[in-house]
């Protein structure tokens, strides 16, 4: 009987080297994580120049050199102790506030953790001190000893890491190929460079220059220049500035026009107090802000910078500090969505310059050379156009059946415009300079309106353009009159988990504003009593389940809003002028004027461009005149 009694296990304190290797497994999962930690230390040291070199993806060697404040010989040794840091200062009561973080790194784990799984050499020089060097291998420290500091500045630090994970061979088995690891390092450096435009960065891989970013001036222009260097010239030329503030939270950055989009969300970046983070909320925010303009499988480009009191954000929820938790996530999310939508509305009818570039590429004569000869120039982007304009001489008041007619019934059969005897229009008293989208000159194939601008031509897809105008008009009417509800004769009962049901019921007031009336029905069930009248007969059970998923993943009820947009988009499509309809001159010019006065008219409801603008200089290049 006694033999079956399990003996009490002895509790032992782990050796320091084992503790460091465990920490390394959390903080330094791959070479890119080590580069991130060391580069962040350089930024905290006030560096204005950071030079990074790696070999074999960083596994064989990585060197990070900066011109920061440097360290003394005594500090070099102390910095290699676990949780030794200069970035957390005790208050008057001797306590350290872990919620008041103003630096990138603060735990004091990076150097000892990396040193425990590699061979590390640190050389540093502080102001008024001689340069010193220490060598660390498997927890054994040699030094400090005098050294020659080769940095360009009077002060700074140089850290060389060799044979990463040599002390933990099992970890090497989980490393990806050299190319994948090098790409991960490149991504880390790009994100840090985006958040620190005033710092110059350079990255070498196996002796080859990969990245080289010069320091940019402080302010919006410098930030956009750095973003353009990283995200591409197309983003720089087609980005709208974001600037907003609410309840102590400020948001800046840039977002791309809807017609500039990608097939994935990899070009969406979020920074919180200068720290690059990956947050699920960002995906929901971007999707919610652009859901009016893009198909669900397309993703816009954006770089957003959130600044707030450190006490209102927890940066200590992940060992690698790549995730954060906001105290008032709803306020941050609402600020971001509102700022994005406002900036896109301010862009008016503007479409991305990539549309013209793509068109010119398709128009290039067969066999003609490619490259700069046929490169497109930026589209005309007016800065003085107000979102609302007074009627122009070319906008009848209103023309019978013309584009200025209110679209209340949205009945395509009720639209009976005059049929023009000719599609050619040549107004004699028109000043082209007055109109960004020019003056209509012709209609081709009863589908495309050709307009002449002061320095080129504009080709408008009449159906796509009018579909957007009708859709925006429907949105204004719904906002003014509210969403009508239709009560269900027999309420629908939706079975969910208790957590899912709680999340949906918590948003009952928000959903009611959109015409969906729900209430709790016991534990793990929701009762649907009314649905938006606009939807007609619908699958309420499926919608509620989609909403539960959205609230869990994005903290937003995107499914209902997307359903609204789908229904209104279909109605707008049916209520807009069709391709194959001949338009008279007044109708064509009225369409152009309304596009100039309507936000988001540069793209249809699915993100496709409604017009293409070609500059005269680009057209001349096609014919070899330039």
Description:
With 626 residues, the protein is an alpha+beta fold. The chain has 3 domains: 198 residues, 2-Layer Sandwich (Heat Shock Protein 90); 127 residues, Ribosomal Protein S5, domain 2 (2-Layer Sandwich), CATH 3.30.230; 214 residues, 2-Layer Sandwich (Ribosomal Protein S8, Chain: A, domain 1), CATH 3.30.1370.100. Helices cover 33% and strands 22% of the residues. It contains 18 helices and 24 strands. The strands form 6 sheets. The chain has an 8-stranded mixed sheet with strand order 5-4-3-6-2-1-7-8. It has a 5-stranded mixed sheet with strand order 9-10-15-12-13, with helices on both faces. The protein has a 4-stranded antiparallel sheet with strand order 18-19-20-24. Helix 6 runs antiparallel to helix 7, helix 12 crosses helix 17 and helix 13 packs across helix 15. It starts with 15 loop residues before the first helix and ends with a helix. About 9% of the residues have low confidence.
Summarize the structure.
By secondary structure, this protein is an alpha+beta fold. The protein is built from 18 helices and 24 strands.
Q: Helicity level, as a percent range?
A: 25-40%
Largest sheet properties: 8 strands, mixed
CATH architecture of the largest domain: 2-Layer Sandwich
The tally of strands reads 24
Uncertain segments are: 367-424
Q: What is the approximate shape?
A: globular
Q: How many helices in DSSP terms?
A: 18
Give the DSSP E fraction (strand runs of 2 or more residues): 15-25%
For this structure, what is the CATH homologous superfamily of the largest domain?
MutL, C-terminal domain, regulatory subdomain
CATH topology of the largest domain: Ribosomal Protein S8, Chain: A, domain 1
Number of domains: 3
Q: Rg to the nearest angstrom? A: 30 Å
What is the highest CATH level, the class of the largest domain?
Answer: Alpha Beta
What topology, given as strand order, has the largest sheet?
5-4-3-6-2-1-7-8
> End-to-end distance, in Å?
99 Å
Structural class: alpha+beta
| Average pLDDT, all residues | 77
């Amino acid at each position: 009987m006694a033999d079956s009694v399990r003996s009490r296990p002895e509790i032992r304190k782990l050796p320091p080297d084992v503790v460091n290797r465990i920490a390394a497994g959390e903080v330094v999962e791959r070479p890119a994580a080590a580069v991130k930690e060391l580069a962040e230390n350089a930024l905290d040291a006030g560096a204005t120049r950071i030079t990074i070199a790696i070999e074999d993806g960083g596994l064989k060697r990585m060197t990070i050199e900066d011109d920061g404040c440097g360290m003394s010989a005594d500090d070099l040794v102390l910095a290699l102790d676990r949780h030794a840091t200069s970035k957390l200062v005790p208050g008057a009561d001797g306590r350290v506030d872990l919620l008041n973080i103003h630096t990138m790194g603060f735990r004091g784990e990076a150097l000892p953790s990396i040193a425990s799984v590699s061979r590390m050499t640190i050389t540093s020089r502080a102001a008024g001190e001689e340069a010193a060097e220490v060598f660390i291998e498997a927890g054994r420290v040699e030094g400090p000893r005098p050294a020659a500091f080769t940095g360009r500045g009077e002060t700074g630090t140089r850290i060389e890491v060799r044979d990463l994970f040599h002390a933990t061979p099992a970890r090497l088995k989980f490393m990806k190929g050299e190319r994948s690891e090098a790409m991960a390092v490149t991504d880390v450096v790009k994100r840090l460079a985006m958040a620190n435009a005033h710092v110059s960065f350079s990255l070498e891989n196996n002796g080859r220059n990969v990245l080289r970013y010069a320091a940019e001036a402080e302010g919006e222009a410098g930030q956009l220049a750095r973003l353009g260097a990283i995200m591409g010239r197309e983003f720089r030329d087609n980005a709208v500035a974001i600037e907003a503030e609410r309840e102590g939270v400020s948001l800046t950055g840039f977002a791309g026009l809807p017609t500039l989009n990608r097939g994935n969300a990899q070009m969406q970046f979020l920074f919180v107090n200068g720290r690059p983070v990956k947050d699920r909320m960002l995906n929901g925010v971007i999707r919610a802000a652009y859901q009016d303009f893009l198909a669900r499988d397309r993703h816009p480009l954006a770089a957003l910078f959130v600044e707030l009191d450190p006490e209102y954000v927890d940066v200590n929820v992940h060992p690698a500090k790549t995730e954060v938790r906001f105290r008032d996530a709803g306020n941050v999310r609402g600020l971001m969505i509102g700022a994005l939508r406002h900036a896109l509305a301010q862009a008016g009818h503007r479409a991305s310059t990539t549309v013209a570039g793509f068109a010119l590429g398709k128009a290039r004569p067969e066999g003609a050379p490619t490259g700069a000869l046929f490169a497109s120039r930026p589209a005309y982007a007016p800065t003085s156009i107000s979102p609302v304009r007074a009627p122009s001489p070319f906008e009848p008041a209103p023309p019978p059946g013309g584009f200025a007619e209110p679209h209340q019934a949205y009945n395509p059969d009720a639209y009976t415009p005059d049929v023009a005897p000719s599609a050619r229009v040549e107004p004699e008293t028109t000043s082209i300079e007055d109109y960004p989208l020019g003056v209509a000159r012709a209609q081709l194939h009863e589908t495309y309106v050709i307009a002449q601008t002061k320095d080129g031509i504009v080709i408008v897809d009449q159906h796509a353009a009018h579909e957007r105008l009708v859709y925006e008009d429907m949105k204004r009417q719904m906002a003014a009159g509210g969403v009508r509800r239709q009560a269900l004769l027999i309420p629908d009962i939706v079975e969910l988990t208790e957590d899912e049901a709680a999340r949906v019921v918590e948003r009952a007031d928000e959903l009611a504003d959109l015409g969906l009336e729900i209430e709790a029905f016991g534990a793990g069930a929701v009762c649907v009593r009314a649905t938006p009248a606009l939807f007609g007969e619908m699958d309420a059970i499926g919608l509620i389940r989609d909403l539960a998923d959205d609230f869990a993943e994005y903290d937003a009820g995107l499914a209902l809003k997307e359903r609204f947009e789908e229904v209104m988009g279909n109605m707008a499509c049916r209520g807009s002028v069709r391709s194959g309809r001949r338009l008279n001159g007044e109708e064509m010019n009225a369409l152009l004027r309304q596009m100039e006065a309507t936000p988001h008219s540069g793209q249809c409801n699915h993100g496709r461009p409604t017009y293409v603008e070609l500059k005269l200089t680009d057209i001349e290049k096609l014919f070899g005149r330039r």
